[in-house]
Design brief:
heterodimer; A: mainly alpha; MetI-like fold; 78% helix; B: alpha/beta; 10 helices; 12 strands; 24% strand
Chain lengths: 316, 326
């Protein structure tokens, strides 16, 4: 195994370990007794204490932490307090909605950002550029839940093209399911796309000032040809970094939009589990998200090497 | 002798934060086939702007006046699409910084072959083979391996050879070399200049060599332009100019070259003062503030080019004055 991959694996494990400890500690400090939440505030103290003991809360924290991690290592998940099913089943059912939603939103983000960013950079300081940058400022400023509501009002209520929310499941057919994800994906992609468009534009403009761009022009390439053949790929490196961060935040940060569209995704699961003090769900979901983020960063690093031959030589 | 390139009262005005600045003023020259024109001067004197004006690659907002004729066709009157057909085909340019002038993400062969594919409509394979031939010709060792490598795998000298191969791909009529050796080790400088000279002689193209180094110009140029503050202050055949500098600036430039055997007690001669800001040039002679000969009239009169000798002219009101410091 190469040094690069070994370092990466080590980072992955250390990150997960740290994330698991932080999550566990945070949930320990969270006020509210799960047993009390389950039994309701009218329950007798004896009953609460008994349930607490049954759930293992009388045991020391380190033991409970060790049991949690030990279980995960053997592929065993605890049962959710509220749903009474293994946490993995809950996560699985939501991942198949949240991951496609995040991917869909990321695809739209990339399309918006590249079209607008390239257009604006090629008309630097001209009206087209100013207009696009003005709109992107607006896109960043608009909160996505508000945009989500606007989209529902227009496309679901007034025009009736889409349902106002909910998810029919993938069994209802690929296109039907995708259609249900379109409005939420647009709501998410507008903000992210506006941010990425600005990054794409400024990265392109920076590369356009490089000496090799002048060399390419001196060869007789038109401005447009130089942009596509020489500038774009060089400008991608910082853009890809931002895209990785955005995809990670789309996976973990769709809570609000999922709630507006009543989509049973991962965000909603965390949100509800925190409310229910269903800490076994919360800790597993958070740990999984941490793993996903580290994995995405790893993919981004691999992408760098594909884009830039200077990184290939010594790193992988 | 056949004239390939001619500049006729070329003037370049740049938009700067301080307002419009005339980077080049009334510059005229003619370049013959197989000859080398040297342009010399300090940084900021307008050498590079002259080159970029000829290439049609001036920064945004720049204005030009006068004419630049390539085989009689005025390049300044052409739109970008028509200039694109000329750049890299009839006129090519080598830049100062070989480290940053190549695209770090493209292979050498693709970068050298690009101008061939563009202007000669060659296929990928044909351009690659021609690129290999060009790399061999500019003396890149092991070209079969180098052609598939990326710029970061080459040394500075090798990269400048790649730039030369790239510029020569379509056998241009005019090659502009803007400080081609400034960024290189001294030991490599000579090799690169010899290479450019040999190739120019071989193909019969006209060469414009831009440098701040009088030594480089003296060894390589047939004709010389000395520029100061955007103006030509002295112009003539290399032979005539280096026999006797007429303009006080050119004299100062020459006197400032350290001489071997001058003894360690001899102070290095310098020209007092600094290069003027082209956005804020005084009326009259641009060199007045630093000139040992300057009189009141220099502050109001722009000196015209006057004949000094056979094929040798200079722009100074006091050419007859005792040559201070020479």
């Amino acid at each position: 195994m190469s040094v690069f991959l070994f370092k990466r694996l080590l980072t992955f494990l250390v990150t997960l370990l740290a994330a698991s400890m932080l999550t566990f500690a945070a949930l320990e400090l969270l006020p509210g007794d799960p047993a009390l939440v389950i039994l309701g505030i009218d329950a007798s103290p004896d009953a609460v204490a008994a349930l607490s003991r049954e759930m293992g809360f009388d045991q020391p924290a380190w033991l409970r932490y060790a049991r949690w991690i030990g279980g995960l290592l053997q592929g065993e998940f605890a049962d959710s307090y509220t749903y009474k099913v293994p946490v993995w089943e809950l996560i699985r059912d939501r991942l198949i909605i949240t991951v496609p939603l995040a991917v869909f939103a990321m695809v739209l983000t990339t399309i918006f950002a590249f079209l607008l960013g390239i257009y604006a950079a090629s008309r630097h300081n001209r009206p087209g550029d100013v207009l696009v940058m003005g709109f992107s400022q607006l896109g960043i400023a608009v909160p996505n839940f508000w945009l989500a509501i606007l989209l529902i009002v227009l496309f679901a209520v007034k025009l009736g093209w889409f349902k106002s929310g909910g998810f029919p499941g993938w069994d209802a057919g690929f296109w039907e399911a995708l259609k249900a994800l379109l409005l939420p994906a647009i709501a998410l992609a507008t903000v992210q796309g506006a941010i990425l468009a600005r990054f794409t534009r400024s990265s392109l403009l920076e590369v356009m000032r490089e000496d090799f761009v002048r060399t390419a022009r001196a060869k007789g390439l038109s401005r447009r040809a130089v942009l596509w053949r020489h500038v774009l790929r060089n400008a991608l490196i910082p853009v890809v970094t931002i895209m990785g961060l955005q995809f990670a935040s789309l996976l973990a940060g769709t809570i609000v939009v999922e709630n507006v569209f009543a989509i049973p995704g991962l965000g909603r699961l965390i949100f509800q589990s925190i409310g229910n003090r269903d800490i076994v769900v919360v800790r597993d979901v958070v740990l999984m998200l941490a793993a996903l983020v580290v994995a995405i960063n790893f993919l981004v690093d691999l992408l760098y090497a594909v884009i830039d031959p200077r990184l290939k030589a010594h790193d992988i | 002798m056949e004239t390939v390139l001619e500049a006729d009262r070329l003037t370049v005005t740049l938009q700067t934060a301080a307002g419009p600045a005339r980077a080049v003023r009334d510059l005229s020259f003619s370049l013959q086939r197989g000859r080398c024109l040297g342009i010399v001067g300090e940084s900021g004197c307008g050498k590079s702007m002259t080159a970029l004006a000829i290439m049609g690659l001036l920064p945004e907002g720049a204005h030009t006046a006068g004419r630049v004729l390539l085989h009689g066709e005025d390049l300044l009157a052409l739109d970008d699409a028509r200039m694109c057909a000329i750049r890299g085909d009839r006129i090519a340019m080598i830049f100062q910084e070989p480290m940053t002038s190549l695209n770090p993400l493209h292979r050498i062969g693709d970068q050298v072959g690009e101008a061939l594919r563009l202007h000669k409509r060659m296929g990928r394979r044909e351009a690659w083979e021609k690129a290999l031939f060009l790399l061999e010709r500019v003396g890149i060792p092991d070209p079969h391996r180098r052609i598939g490598q990326y710029p970061h795998q080459l040394s500075g000298g090798q990269r400048q050879r790649v730039m030369i191969a790239m510029a020569l791909a379509n056998e241009p009529d005019v090659l502009i070399a803007d400080e081609p050796t400034t960024a290189l080790d001294v030991t490599i400088q000579r090799q690169i200049l010899d290479l450019i000279q040999d190739l120019a002689a071989e193909t019969g193209m006209g060469l414009i060599l831009i440098s701040h180094d009088l030594g480089v110009i003296a060894e390589n140029a047939d004709d010389v332009l000395v520029m100061y503050g955007g103006m030509v202050v002295e112009q003539g055949s290399s032979e005539a100019i280096f026999r006797r500098f007429a303009h006080p600036y050119a004299q100062g430039l020459f006197a400032a070259i350290p001489k071997l055997g001058a003894g360690r007690d001899t102070r290095l001669r310098t020209i007092p003062g600094t290069v003027p800001d082209i956005a804020d040039l005084p009326p009259g002679c641009p060199f007045q503030n630093r000139c040992p000969r300057a009189e009141a009239v220099c502050a109001v009169t722009v000196p015209p080019m006057e004949r000094v000798g056979e094929g040798h002219r200079a722009a100074c009101l006091f050419l007859d004055k005792a040559e201070a410091g020479a």
